[in-house]
Give the backbone structure.
Amino acid sequence: MVVVGTRLAHHDPALVMNFFGHACIAARRERSAEFILGAMLPDFASMLGARGTHSTCDETAAGIRFHHATDRVFHETRNFKDLSLASSNWLSARALDRGPARAVAHIGTEILLDTFLAQEDGALLAYTGALCVGTKAGQLPNVTISPPHLETALPKLCGTLLEATPRLADPRPEAIALRVFRTLSHRPKLALKDTEVSLVTDWARHFAPEVCSVAASWMQELENELKGAHSDAQIES
């Protein structure tokens, strides 16, 4: 049995792949609900404002390691770099400030990818299965969050996300824009103005076909890179 954790002092939610994407990619590697939950835990801890998350469960610990490996590899994929750069340029050309434009390009591209991943067989089932395990996290001795008082918040967060699952498969540009708006709303320097949501809606409408056209090959590239660059023994915590 091992103890794996992640420190979140420098963890920026605007610079990481989102938790649903992590769940879907983890499910391609391993269908264990504990593994998939681990692949989402660092993002959940960040959302709760925690300093770190740890697990003594081998499968959950492996999921945490897989999360960090996925973040490193995903953001170096050709498709992510090309799409996020093109999106940032598109938004900047339409007068969105540089910071929000880059944030929307980054997070929005990941959310557009969500709508593709949500259509894969078993993806939503794997995701909700992991969340169900998470709703009981406060009763499980193998998952801890620092500071300890946030441990009771994790099951509540998983329950809230479980109820919101249908939104993940909603491909409408308006729904994509709303998810981006909500994600950035707590970041004063990156948050969108109400008047800018329509621009993000137009961006989603424009770039959704491009993301869908490359999504399958993109995920294959990611899987190949993860297999080539890491094994469970090599992935750093």
About this structure: The chain has nine helices and three strands. The first helix runs from residue 19 to 29.
